[in-house]
Design brief:
Helix content: 25-40%
Number of strands: 7
Structural class: alpha/beta
Radius of gyration: 14 Å
Number of helices: 3
Shape: globular
Strand content: 25-35%
Strand order of the largest sheet: 2-1-3-4-5-6-7
Order of helices and strands: EHEEEHEEEH
Distance between the termini: 27 Å
Oligomer: single chain
Largest sheet: 7 strands, mixed
């Protein structure tokens, strides 16, 4: 059984509901929501871009996706989102601009845009959430 948790603080009710809808997509795929992030294989970390909080993994194999919301898309998404990736210690950061889309930014400094449909976000995150992450520094 794969597990996931939602952690962090939403910046608005729409932010919180949108991330919860993504979580429900994971549940439809067989993931179980757990209360304790230490028990999660995959963490959906909500954060405030004005005060990003790092999710500290309890296990090396826990994958973390950090989610934040802005009212407008920045001119340079990579320049805006990459520091958020670093500050939240995430594997990927997801910027949601309600009604406009979602931008993913990766550790390799890649960025791409998709719709803000939670099912589309799940489709992009699912292969990552199902993989075995091993970090050994």
């Amino acid at each position: 059984m794969r597990t996931y948790a939602i952690w962090g603080t939403a910046t608005s009710p729409t932010h919180e509901e949108w991330v919860a809808r993504i979580g429900r997509e994971f549940e439809r795929d067989g993931f179980e929501l757990v209360d304790d992030v230490a028990d999660a294989d995959f963490v959906l970390n909500m954060f405030d871009p004005q005060d990003p909080k790092a999710f500290r993994r309890a296990s090396r194999g826990t994958y973390s996706a950090s989610f934040y919301e802005l009212s407008d898309a920045p001119e340079d998404v990579l320049k805006t989102s990459y520091p958020m990736l670093v500050r939240t210690l995430a594997n990927v950061v997801v910027l949601h601009v309600p009604g406009d889309g979602v931008w993913f930014t990766t550790m390799e400094r890649g960025t791409y845009r998709i719709t803000d449909d939670p099912a589309d976000v799940f489709e992009r995150l699912s292969p990552l959430a199902k993989s075995k992450l091993v970090i050994d520094n």
